[in-house]
Prior knowledge:
The protein is mainly alpha-helical.
Amino acid sequence: xxxxxxxxxxxxxxxxxxxxxxxxxxxxxxxxxxxxxxxxxxxxxxxxxxxxxxxxxxxxxxxxxxxxxxxxxxxxxxxxxxxxxxxxxxxxxxxxxxxxxxxxxxxxxxxxxxxxxxxxxxxxxxxxxxxxxxxxxxxxxxxxxxxxxxxxxxxxxxxxxxxxxxxxxxxxxxxxxxxxxxxxxxxxxxxxxxxxxxxxxxxxxxxxxxxxxxxxxxxxxxxxxxxxxxxxxxxxxxxxxxxxxxxxxxxxxxxxxxxxxxxxxxxxxxxxxxxxxxxxxxxxxxxxxxxxxxxxxxxxxxxxxxxxxxxxxxxxxxxxxxxxxxxxxxxxxxxxxxxxxxxxxxxxxxxxxxxxxxxxxxxxxxxxxx
Length: 370
């Protein structure tokens, strides 16, 4: 290639200008690589002399490419500068908004402090308003509250007269009035209702005593037995807004049925003395089936099905008999006649399973029959 052509391809600098040295070694190396690549490209293009005629075209094309790159760079830089300008403007607006919000929060804080002072000032007025509301409710309930002591006495009279359903209705009316008063007065308890607790306990004891005499009442006054059971069942489904312990009258009735039955047949005064065991067992042989028949025919219809009266009767009679026989075996040594009677009765008369384990009578053992 002609050296003059190579000189023409070298970029010329304006007169009086000097190319500043690179600021970093990497920049100098990059420029050297770029110049080497350009010279290599130019040497390949203009290697033959006939291609020198096209030098002007190449120069014009490179100038256009350079201008295009400069325009694109300028556009990118301009866009970037506009974005920076927009971001700075938005930051300024956000700063103004933050300052405005800060001032508004300061004003709100001042207003809240003023409102707190106002609330403290109005607190006595609020208490007076609550008291006025309570007095208004109390004035409306006052005629009914005046009648509470007389109603308590009347309910107690009904309990003494064994009019249990009417007594329970009266008790519930008084308790509903107590709940209404408690809600109207904001949980304030009035001394006028202090008699309701003893009244409810008296009614519960009356219900329990009535159910405990179920065997007798089923024959003489079944309506009273039914009334007692109904009171217990209605009470079992009752809910109250007051913080009161539930009155579990249903369980008390079931316990009363068991205790009353055991008291009739296995009470301490009924236990036989020495030599009288045969007569006592014979009486039980007749009485226990009759008691079960009475429970099925008379007592069960007076009670809800879930009481399972016949099963309860059989279980209670069996348990009472077991305890009595156990007392005999653990007590003083039985005579020969009583021991023989007891063994004969257990093996041949009472054929059910008596869970006494091994019976020790006079040094001999006999197993309970199955």
